[in-house]
Amino acid sequence: MALVAGIDSSTQSCKVVVHDADTGRPVRSGRAAHPDGPEVAPQAWWRALHAAVEEAGGLDDVAAVAVGGQQHGMVALDEDGEVVRDALLWNDTRSAGAALDLILELGDGDAPAGARAWVDAVGILPVASFTVTKLRWLAEYEPANAARVAAVALPHDWLTWRLAGAGGLDALTTDRSDASGTGYWSPHTEAYRPDLLVRGLGHEAILPRVVGPSEVAATARPGVVADLGVDVVLGAGAGDNAAAALGLGLQPGEVSVSIGTSGVVCAVAPRPTADPSGMVAGFADATGRYLPLVCTLNASRVLDAACRLLGVDHAELSRLALSAPLGAGGLVLVPYLEGERTPNRPDDMGALHGLRPDNLTPANLARAAVEGMLCGLADGLDELRRHDVEVARVHLIGGGARSQAVQRIAPDILGVDIEVPLPGEYVAVGAARQAAWALSGAETPPDWSRTGEEPVRHGVDADGTVVRERYAAVRELTARRW
User: Fold this and answer.
1) Which of 65, 148, 368, 440 is most buried, most CB within 10 Å of its CB?
2) How far apart are CA 123 and CA 102, in angstroms?
3) 482 falls in which pLDDT band (50, 70, 90)?
């Protein structure tokens, strides 16, 4: 029985899962925390990987490994392969001004023309999350560091490179899903746009070789992590959302709504999308298809904040929310606690609206938090439909999806029945499935159907249209205009 390992190096932690390569049967797992904050030393990811591998019982018996990682993070390397400065993560919004500058420049001062030019070039509109904007920020505010940059990698690229022994910069690899979130690789042409990299960084730099979905990226160097063997295959790896889609076995017509640190609504599609509004990012997926995606900055942390405000745990927050009526008695929470990515409002703040003496209760506050978070995701679902993405089935995943309140309220706000798969580390599972694919050399990924693991299903019980209309009105009313 061949074993494979999948690694999920996410914003909050590193997870390692070991599975049977043929059946997908889980064997063991481990995890370790990452430092908090939008700026992290990549070495912290490496230490967490070691700790997670140790908790998982080592990797000395695995035949292949692949890494799924948080997207967009800027890992800048000098000519010796040393990290130039701490990585700026996807949720670091300091490059919002740089994003606008890049749009205006490509449009010769006209923002709509610039937006269309960027989307035509690389399928996405620059926002603070994407790597190219972080490079522009580096060039503007830390020019000495920018001048030292010889290569630019993403978190999963850097970890794969380290697993392979951290050779020369020309040994860096990535995959099409993660490359499509940089702002200088096009899913339309399957090629880099070096001119756009230069527009961001100010000079040329080495970029990772893009490895195909089923290809072998490298061979792991023995002893790099625990007792990793001599001939361990390293798969291409993937961005976290593409890895999760692979872990779920997502097919066209199925939509994943993930409630983690960020909120993500995405689907597998046969054709690339191009949205000059920036609401839908036209990413590539981990199988050779495409991954139209809407991402919000504020998801499970909204629930965390509501727990802190009310002095309760998540179970009690859920009970309170379910005890309140649909619409939370008129309370509306716009949950832009960290600004927002979709819509692109990095400087906005959260707002609680509709307060009256009779509705200011813990139950209504809890309900408003859940509904506000879900309204942002419902907007994402509408945007996918607007781009002709079929929505036949919705899978609700992520840590926030374990909440009973979220599960039972979601169908009414999203306007569609949902399925909640058994809790799982789907990014890590997707990476493991990709490792098995690279190991097999087959044309298609192995069939890891989850036989006997029926999802929990929740249907629409009430019309949430009024809730969403009220949310939209308050969102516009409270938008920052100064």
Assistant:
1) 65
2) 15
3) very low
For residue 375, give the nearest of 329, 423, 342, 397 by alpha carbon: 342
β partners of residue 244: none
Instruction: Please state, in angstroms and as integers, the Cα–Cα distance from residue 352 to each residue in 210, 279, 364, 373, 414, following that order.
Output: 45, 24, 11, 12, 21
Pair of tokens at residue 169: 């910069």
Burial call 10-41: b when 16+ CB within 10 Å, e when fewer = bbbebbbbbbbbeebeebebbbbebeeebebe
Residue 450 confidence (pLDDT) = 57
- Rounded percentage of the chain residues whose pLDDT exceeds 90: 87
**Is the distance from CB of 310 to CB of 405 less than 8 angstroms?**
no
CA–CA separation, 414 and 395 (whole Å): 12
pTM over 0.85: yes
Round to whole Å and give the CA distance between 390 and 5: 32
- pLDDT tens-digit map of 325-359: 999 999 999 999 988 888 888 889 999 999 999 99
Task: For the chain, report the end-to-end CA distance as a whole number of angstroms.
Answer: 62
Write out the DSSP string of 21-84: TTT--EEEEEEEEPPPSSEE-HHHHHHHHHHHHHHTT-STTEEEEEEEE-SS-BEEE-TTS-B-
Three-class secondary structure of residue 452 per DSSP: coil
Q: What is the pLDDT of residues 144-172, one digit of tens each?
A: 999 999 999 999 999 999 999 888 999 99
The residues that bridge with 476 in the sheet, in sequence order, are none
Q: Which residue's structure tokens are 């090629």? A: 191
Residue 452: CB atoms within 10 A of its CB come to 5
Least Cα distance to 154 among 214, 235, 69, 94 occurs for: 69
Q: Which amino acid is at 423?
A: P
Whole-number Å distance between alpha carbons of 102 and 200: 8
Phi and psi angles of residue 447, each rounded to the nearest 5 degrees, phi first: -80, 105
Distances 123 to 193, 308, 445, 469 between C-alpha atoms, Å: 12, 39, 26, 30
Q: How far is residue 222's CA from residue 294's CA, in Å, rounded to a whole number? A: 39
Q: Roughly what angle, to the nearest 10 degrees, separates helices 314-323 and 404-414? A: 40
Q: Which residues pair with 340 in a beta bridge?
A: 345
Name the CA radius of gyration of the chain, rounded: 22
Catalytic residues: 240
Q: Which two tokens stand for residue 47?
A: 């230490």
What residue type is 400 in one-letter code?
G
| Short-list 5, 1, 23, 27, CA closest to 451 | 23
C-alpha distances in angstroms, 359 versus 45, 213, 305, 317, 368? 45, 52, 20, 17, 11
* Residue linked to tokens 């996918």: 384
Q: Cβ of 98: how many Cβ atoms within 10 Å?
A: 22
Query: What tens digit of pLDDT does each residue of 437-468 get?
Result: 999 999 999 999 854 568 899 999 999 999 99
Contact 197, 131 (CB under 8 A): no
